[in-house]
Amino acid sequence: MKTLSSKDLRKFLSDHGALLALVVLMLVCCLSSADFRRPQNLLNIIRQNS
User: Fold this and answer.
1) Which of 3, 20, 24, 31 has its C-alpha lying 20 to 30 A from 12's C-alpha?
2) Residue 11, Cβ neighbours under 10 Å: how many?
3) Is 13 helix (H, G, I), strand (E, B) or coil?
């Protein structure tokens, strides 16, 4: 099994950091607000980001 070096981690974060931040932000919002979890709202957010 290959170990993840700090160089690999930096490369991954530079390539996918914005997407990772968006996913984390959406998870936090979903956990903190019932209105945010509505399917229509989530579809609206995805539509606006595309």
Assistant:
1) 31
2) 11
3) helix
Q: Quick one: how many helices (H) and strands (E) in the chain?
A: 2, 0
- Over residues 6-28, the pLDDT tens digits come to 899 899 989 999 999 988 988 89
The answer to whether the beta carbons of residues 49 and 19 sit under 8 Å apart is: no
**pTM beyond 0.90, yes or no:** no
Interatomic CA distance for residues 36 and 27, integer angstroms? 10
- Using alpha carbons, select from 2, 23, 20, 22 the residue that is nearest to residue 12: 20
Enter the tokens of residue 27.
């998870």
